[in-house]
Amino acid sequence: MAAPSLAELTRAFTRIxxxxxxxxxxxxxxxxxxxxxxxxxxxQGAFLRALNLCHLLPGPEAQQLATWIGWRLHGVRGGLxxxxxxxxxxAAFMLGLSLLYAAAAGLQWFAALxxxxxxxxxxxxxxxxxxxxxRALGTRFKLALAVLAAIALTxxxxxxxxxILTAGVxxxxxxxxxxxxxxxxxxxxxxxxxxxxxxxxxLTIRTVVLWLAIWGLPLALVYFTLGPxxxxxxxxxxxxxxxxVTFGGAYxxxxxxxxxxxxGFDWLSPGEMADGLGLAETTPGPLIMVTQFVGFIAAWxxxxxxxxxxxxxxxxxxxxxxxxxxxFLWIFACAPWMERLERAERLQGALAAITAAxxxxxxxxxxxxALHVLFRRVSGSGLPDTASLDWRAALIxxxxxxxxxxxxxxxxxxxxxxxxxxxxLSLIPxx
Length: 431
Fold this sequence. Notes:
Layout: H1 6-19, H2 23-38, H3 44-56, H4 61-104, H5 108-136, H6 140-154, H7 160-177, H8 198-226, H9 231-244, H10 250-264, H11 270-281, H12 290-301, H13 308-334, H14 338-342, H15 345-374, H16 391-406, H17 411-425
């Protein structure tokens, strides 16, 4: 089939961007149906190989896959159109919800509503943990990596990047010396000779330099206009670092991001972090869009010489920029080398080990959220005051568990029902 026009590509990804609910699994399935099955713009084998490449890269794999599809069909212009349209609808929704959240903070009905949202998030994170565990833990070695990662984060309080880096090194070594520990590697890439033209190397270097400049331009503007002490510089620098270590999807870095935003920078509370995740779950686009909420609230609360509204809008925009600009860098630089990356056994081994460690990371996230949602007081060491158990949160969390696992309800429906329950419980005298 002939490649679509830019107008056709734009219409298709406008539709995909507005309908991309359900996390990466649902988003990838949506692109499979719209691009491969119905329109036939990309063949199945190429689609799967590109998906494998996106799993190798930091950042949201669904958004990167959208960018690759656009690049495959219309080069850099197509990649920009597809990648941006995959992100912009969700970013617009999240910005609107963040503005509403900031404006209504402190109202009793609003707090009750979001008590239900926070409790529902516990079931959603547990569901994500089970899904990733089923896919990632195919051997005892991978199970051990997941357990060790959870212990390192929960008990030893090891830095998240160190845990991911260590898992990658262990996986690369295992791929060389004991590949059976990692289980079988499936790929439909052929085993013929590979070519790496010198012109391609030069193109890759130019691409990396250009996108590093694009990535860093807003940070430079903030530094030279507001200075290194302004919250916008801290936000931009933190989320730029985060963009480099977001292997394994958004859930993998949420615990690291939440603990840094709450304990390290004091930008927001644990409950507000759970609120942000709940908002991100109900909007289209990548779940990592929760970073925009954090950047908005951080700048809104610490505006410096700016007004809270202007600071919040700049914080949201800067966070979104430094979160997603690297995704275009990875795809435009790496897509031409896709087949070679697919055959890099040590790289595949590192990815498999990182994916296994991510299970432990998500388990740590689930525990962190549970403690801060279900208990009103948690010590600095992470132990809850059992007398501070919030019975309403526990009841709604149980309801969410039944809805998600028992009745198989979707995320949006579950969050809506639990939010309504939180509002209803607030009407009980003495609650």
